[in-house]
Design a protein that fits this description.
mainly alpha, 7 helices
């Protein structure tokens, strides 16, 4: 811990405020720019790691862990550079005790990190909300405004349910109406973590049997299999979102630490109090 009074060489009579906002803003903007740069690079790197072909690319688990670690690396690099700039570019303080200078430099780095986090959240709010929303509720609530139309999140499940036997095409109702009705059943049933229950499940099984020509027992089995698939996909989305939240939390905490530490180094270098080996 520095236990001396810092008297800057370039402005011995300076008595400025304890917060240098221009330096903080400069560090925050630099941190945001570096974050965007590294995110763009990471996106390209991630796309090169995955592949739709079997046996090619990395596994889903490896990709998730790599993504989380890369988020931490981004936070550490961007926050360190932003915090260093906030400390190095700050206004000098004359006649301030060394402990107070240390605290102010640390605070400059922390505030620069906080401002960069807020700016980053504001810039990335719309795409982040879209991505996270698709991951968490895409299989449950996304059809509420477009039930019965093509392109909804439930269409793949309904396609599986209503896949007919080529040897038996016994369908008397309008296919579009049948699909719309079943989509509404699924949307309502799985909203807010629920599932298709009781009379709804029995009715859907009867619709599947009439639509596909399957025996009632096989139609009920198909309904049960698809419901299990929906629940499995919803659970996987929940776990992926929780994992992403934990990785983001870790990256933010490490970013705050790195920014604060780098700011103290930058301020000490500016004042000429930083010594190698300390």
């Amino acid at each position: 811990m520095i236990d001396t009074v810092v008297v800057p060489r370039d402005s011995p009579n300076s008595s400025l405020a304890g917060v240098s906002w221009p330096a903080i803003v400069a560090g925050a903007v630099a941190a945001c720019a570096i974050t965007l740069l590294l995110l763009a690079f990471g996106t390209g790197l991630g796309l090169s790691m995955v592949s739709p072909w079997s046996g090619s690319g990395v596994s889903a688990t490896t990709f998730k862990i790599t993504t989380g670690l890369y988020l931490i690396v981004i936070a550490m690099i961007a926050s360190s550079i932003g915090g260093y700039l906030a400390g190095r570019l700050r206004s000098s303080w004359a006649g301030v005790h060394g402990d107070e200078v240390y605290f102010r430099d640390t605070a400059h780095g922390f505030v620069a990190w906080a401002l960069a986090s807020v700016l980053g959240a504001a810039v990335l709010a719309t795409p982040a909300t879209s991505i996270l929303g698709s991951a968490t509720i895409g299989a449950t609530q996304g059809v509420a405004t477009s039930a019965g139309q093509s392109g909804g999140p439930m269409d793949n499940y309904i396609d599986t349910l209503l896949r007919g036997d080529p040897a038996s095409q016994a369908s008397s109702a309008n296919p579009a109406e049948v699909r719309g009705e079943v989509v509404r059943f699924f949307t309502r049933g799985f909203r807010d973590g629920g599932e298709l229950k009781g009379p709804d499940r029995e009715y859907v099984a009867k619709v599947v049997a009439a639509r596909t020509g399957l025996p009632q027992s096989e139609a009920e089995k198909r309904v049960n299999d698809v419901i299990a698939q929906v629940k499995s996909d919803m659970d996987a989305a929940r776990k992926a979102t929780a994992s992403l939240a934990f990785w983001l939390t870790a990256s933010l905490l490490l970013g705050a630490f790195c920014a604060s530490l780098a700011a103290t180094e930058g301020g000490a270098l500016r004042d000429g109090t930083w010594k190698r080996g300390n």
